[in-house]
Amino acid sequence: MMAQQSGWYPQFLKPVVDIVNSTMKIGKVLDVGTGPGMLPALLKANDKLQITGTDISSSMIQRAKENVKSPNVTFYVQDKNSFKDISDSTFDLITICSVLFLLDAKTRSTLLDEVSRILKPSGKIIVLTPSTRKPFFSTMKDIWLFPFSKYNWTFFVWKRATASRATIWHKEKWLYYYSQGNRFEYTIFNVFYDYATLEIIKKQ
Fold it and tell me: How far is Cα 138 from Cα 195, in angstroms, rounded to an integer?
């Protein structure tokens, strides 16, 4: 969790925050794989949003509840890849940050099918994933782009640790093909100084 106390991690999440704030003035947001609740913490300032964070780890949810105390934010432990207690078409927007690329194809499909079910028509799913567009040595220079923190060294660890899975994710174009198969609109952007991609799929 040291990375989430660094100067770079909020910058990693910033493109998601910007998209949510620019496209939604009011509504329900779900953050899948919320961990200790960093994204809801960054979104809570908009009190017109009802934000829910879920994670399969009960310890992460407990930490999120301790970290984020706001009347418009709730957290609960998710039942693996199922949202069986959530009705169809509940959320206006769903975020999945640095999660999907770590899962196998079957688990991804199960999770995305469930996420799509609980997403409202015309709703959006925002997927943030590390990128391999920049080589590792670029981190030596780009580390100075971020606000100073004694935990900024975790940027190097993150870059190295995510490289293999991120390479496979982007080569497979998994989310693009999933979107095509389900007739969702699909767009992709390079963000976070080209260290990440933001993929957005829109439900018809």
Answer: 10
